[in-house]
Amino acid sequence: QVQLAESGGGLVEAGGSLRLDCVVSGGTFSALGLAWYRQAPGKEREFVAAIRRNGGATSYADFVKDRFTISRDNSKNTVYLQMNSLKPEDTAVYYCAAKVTIDYRWWGQGTQVTVSS
Hints:
Layout: E1 3-7, E2 10-13, E3 18-25, E4 33-39, E5 46-51, E6 58-60, E7 68-73, E8 78-83, E9 92-99, E10 106-107, E11 111-116
Parallel strand pairs: 2-11
Antiparallel strand pairs: 1-3, 3-8, 4-5, 4-9, 5-6, 7-8, 9-10, 9-11
């Protein structure tokens, strides 16, 4: 059973930075595709960024391009989301997700990010 544990959320002022970490256990980390999603109050969960299992290809939602960076360290079973130039509209619970094939099958519990104006 793959388990994911996010950390690194918190309160930050607009324009600030945070780095989210997600430690993955119970699976072959290098074989997993990984992603970050977020859910703001009253809104549906939305895609933020993804990184392929080979670590080479990444993709981003348009609203975070050039501000957020996803990366992974296969030696530490960890995926990261570096968030810069944060905006109040980035306030949400951020979730880490993992997949082997098409759908993201495993999810973490989430970490709260709050950006004050």
